Amino acid sequence: MLLELQDIHVIFQRGWLRKRRGAHAVAGVSLALEEKGILALVGESGCGKTTLGRVALGLLRPTSGKVLYEGKDIWGRGGKGLRPTGQTVYQDSYSALNPVRTVYQTLAPPLRRYGTPRKRLREETKKLLEFVGIMPPDYFLNKYPYHLSGGMRQRLVFARAIIPKPKLIVADEPVSMIDASLRLSILDLMLRLNRELGIAFLYITHDLATARYFAQAGRIAVMYLGAIVEEGRMEEVLERPLHPYLRALLSAAPIPDPELARKRELMPLREAEPPSAEHPPPGCRFHPRCPYAQEICAREIPPLRDFGDGHRVACHLVETLPPWRLT
Ligand code: SF4
Fold this sequence. Notes:
- By secondary structure, the protein is α/β, with parallel strands linked by helices.
- The protein contains twelve helices and twelve strands.
- The protein has an eight-stranded mixed beta sheet, with helices on both faces.
- Strand 4 (64-69) and strand 5 (72-73) form a beta hairpin.
- Iron/sulfur cluster binds next to loops.
């Protein structure tokens, strides 16, 4: 396994509130990502997915739990100083790039640092631009970030990210600030990096449609208020969603066919807004909004149970829920 997160908790405590309970941003998450694998981490804003991405790359030390990278505990005694050979790509490519550096000045220094001889720098930069689809490379070498479209800038960020030959990229909403027409081409670029360079991806998003496209052959983990509520192979989970939260997300996802959209029933939630992570509800964190909640739900935290083929769900009442149908 490339990366294993074992029972990760992250609690953010603020100033004079230190001695009180802080925001429990990640609450007991266990996930695994195999070498060259793809895992889509899906959830609404503020559910803790970005925090978990930072933990996965060793950028943030969890309050408790283990981060194993190639079997080594990166925060344990044997793994001190060890960090995953990974890179992060965020949604805002503009702030990820230095506005006073040209494309060449952005890529040449890291290429030099990772062993490219000085006289081959121009050649290698052009190869890299071609590889990520910034064409023609000669035309773009001396352009500044503000000359590039959002899609081109994100390609440049990916070009820089692959220079150290990472085994893992944490891509945090990489296409959410890009025009809808260009999103698929960036996801295709990421699939190419996965296929041809063997880079594993943790793809963080709030958008089920792009998660489905990118991680079609991989896995999906659905996060709600700091906890994983459902996880498994993408195909299996979206064909047979079991957790009420995922069912609610799917029933609210846009459908291109207006006829079907009119006919389908939205799953009604008891409350529209999620509770705050600083004061999470006891028991199942989804219970104040869940239309199926019963007394046990407010009392006991549901464990993640395996329903076959690695399809894990954290819900007390899976066996008694109505069968899933989208329309
Ligand atoms: Fe709903 Fe209860 Fe299942 Fe939570 S455990 S999702 S409240 S039915």
